[in-house]
Backbone:
C-alpha cells in the first residue's frame, strides 16, 4: 500500500475547490448577460444559478453516506466527470433549459468535491480540524477572486463572450483530476475512531445537530445568496461591480488563510456570533452607501461571512464527532440548500423592488430598451440602484435572526461547560 501523501491530497483538494468557486464567480457575473442574451427574467436566472445549489445539495446528501462505502477517491472521480460535462454543456447552452441542466451538473460536481474533501481533511488532520478547514475553504473565495478578475480582464480586452470564461475553467478541472489520479486515500475519521454507522445516524438527528443545521441554512443564504447577486444588485453603484465581488472574496480568502490560528484558539460560538453581527452591519451599510464607501461596507460584510462556513463545519466535527462524514455532508448540503433557496428569492425580491421603483408614468420595457444617454436610460439606472439597495436591506433580516440564534448557542454552551 502506498503512503498517504497528505500535502498532495490537501493541495489537490484546494484546486478542486477553486473550480467550484470559479463556477460561482462566473455565474454571478453572467446574471445580467443571460437575461439579455436569452431573454430571461431575474427570477428565471435565479432558478438557473440556484440549480447549482440544488445539485450541490443532492451530491452532499447522497455522496456523504457513500464516502465510507465506496471511498473518497470515487466521489472525487464523480466530481471530475460532472465538472467536465457541466462546463462543456454550459458553453453550448442555447436557452433556459440547457443552462438549467448544465448548471445542475456543475452543482453535483461542486457538492461531490465538498462531500469528499471535507472528511478527507478532517481525517488527515485530526488535531487541527478547524484550522485546516479554514485554510481549505480559503480557496473558495480565492477562486472567486480569480474568476472575477478573469471576467473583468476578458471584458477589458474586448473578449465579451462569457463562454471564454467558462472554457477557462477546464484548465484547473483537468489539473485537479490529474493530481488526484492514482493517489492513496485515508479511511474516514468515523471508521478509524470506531463509531458505528448507527451512532453516526443517531448523532445526525440530535437536537444540537438539527439546531446547527437550521443555522447553516441561514449562514449560507447570507454568504452565497449575497455574493452570487452582488454584481447585479450593485451594477449601478460602481463602474465595475464584478470587482466588488473580487474585493469581498479577497478579504474572505485573506481572513481564512491568516485567521485560522486565531479561530482555532477562540470559542466557535464567539466567532459565529461576532460574524453574524458584522454581516448584519455590512448589509445595512451596503444598502445605504454609495461611491467609495461601498467598498468599506463590503469589507465589513466580508469579515462577517468569512468564517461562517468553515467554523460551522468545525463546530460539528469537534462537538458532534460521531456524525462523521455524513454530518459534514449534511451540513454542506443544507448550506447549499440555503444558497439554492436564496437565489430565486433574491431574484424575485429584486424584480419586485424594481417594479416598485419605476415611476407610474413609465413602463419597465420602455426603460430597459432605452438608448444609452437618454433620460429614460438614466432613470433605469436609478431604478435598478434603488431596487438593489432595498434588496440588500431585506437580506439583512437573515443575519439579524442569526444574531439571536448564536447568542442562544453561546449561552447554551457556557451552561454545558459550567456543569
Residues:
Amino acid at each position: 500500500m502506498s503512503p498517504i501523501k497528505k500535502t498532495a491530497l490537501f493541495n489537490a483538494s484546494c484546486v478542486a475547490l477553486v473550480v467550484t468557486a470559479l463556477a460561482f464567480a462566473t455565474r454571478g457575473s453572467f446574471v445580467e448577460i443571460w437575461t439579455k442574451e436569452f431573454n430571461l427574467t431575474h427570477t428565471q436566472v435565479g432558478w438557473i444559478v440556484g440549480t447549482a445549489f440544488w445539485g450541490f445539495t443532492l451530491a452532499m446528501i447522497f455522496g456523504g453516506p457513500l464516502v465510507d462505502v465506496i471511498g473518497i477517491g470515487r466521489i472525487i472521480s464523480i466530481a471530475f466527470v460532472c465538472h467536465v460535462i457541466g462546463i462543456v454543456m454550459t458553453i453550448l447552452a442555447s436557452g433556459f433549459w440547457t443552462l438549467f441542466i448544465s448548471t445542475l451538473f456543475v452543482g453535483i460536481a461542486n457538492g461531490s468535491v465538498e462531500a469528499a474533501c471535507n472528511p478527507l481533511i478532517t481525517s488527515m488532520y485530526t488535531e487541527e480540524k478547524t484550522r485546516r478547514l479554514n485554510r481549505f475553504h480559503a480557496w473558495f473565495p480565492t477562486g472567486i477572486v480569480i474568476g472575477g478578475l478573469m471576467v473583468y480582464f476578458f471584458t477589458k480586452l474586448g473578449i465579451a463572450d462569457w463562454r471564454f470564461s467558462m472554457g477557462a475553467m477546464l484548465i484547473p478541472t483537468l489539473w485537479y483530476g490529474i493530481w488526484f489520479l492514482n493517489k492513496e486515500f485515508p479511511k474516514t475519521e468515523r471508521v478509524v475512531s470506531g463509531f458505528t454507522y448507527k451512532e453516526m445516524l443517531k448523532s445526525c438527528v440530535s437536537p444540537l445537530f438539527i439546531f446547527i443545521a437550521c443555522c447553516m441554512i441561514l449562514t449560507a443564504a447570507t454568504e452565497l445568496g449575497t455574493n452570487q447577486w452582488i454584481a447585479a444588485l450593485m451594477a449601478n453603484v460602481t463602474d465595475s461591480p464584478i470587482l466588488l465581488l473580487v474585493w469581498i472574496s479577497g478579504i474572505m480568502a485573506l481572513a481564512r488563510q491568516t485567521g485560522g490560528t486565531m479561530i482555532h484558539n477562540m470559542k466557535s460560538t464567539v466567532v459565529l456570533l461576532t460574524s453574524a453581527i458584522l454581516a448584519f452591519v455590512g448589509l445595512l451599510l451596503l444598502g445605504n452607501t454609495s461611491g467609495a464607501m461601498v467598498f468599506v461596507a463590503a469589507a465589513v460584510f466580508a469579515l462577517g461571512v468569512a468564517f461562517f462556513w468553515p467554523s460551522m463545519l468545525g463546530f460539528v466535527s469537534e462537538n458532534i464527532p460521531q456524525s462523521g462524514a455524513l454530518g459534514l455532508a449534511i451540513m454542506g448540503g443544507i448550506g447549499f440548500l440555503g444558497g439554492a433557496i436564496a437565489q430565486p428569492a433574491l431574484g424575485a425580491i429584486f424584480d419586485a423592488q424594481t417594479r416598485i421603483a419605476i415611476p407610474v408614468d413609465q413602463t419597465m420595457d420602455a426603460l430597459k430598451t432605452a438608448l444609452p444617454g437618454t433620460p429614460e436610460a438614466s432613470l433605469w439606472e436609478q431604478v435598478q440602484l434603488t431596487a438593489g439597495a432595498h434588496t440588500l436591506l431585506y437580506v439583512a433580516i437573515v443575519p439579524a435572526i442569526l444574531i439571536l440564534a448564536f447568542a442562544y448557542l453561546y449561552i447554551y454552551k457556557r451552561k454545558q461547560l459550567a456543569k
Q: What stands out?
A: The chain has one domain: 6-184+198-418. The chain is about 80% helix and 0% strand. The longest helix spans residues 324-357. The radius of gyration is 21 Å.
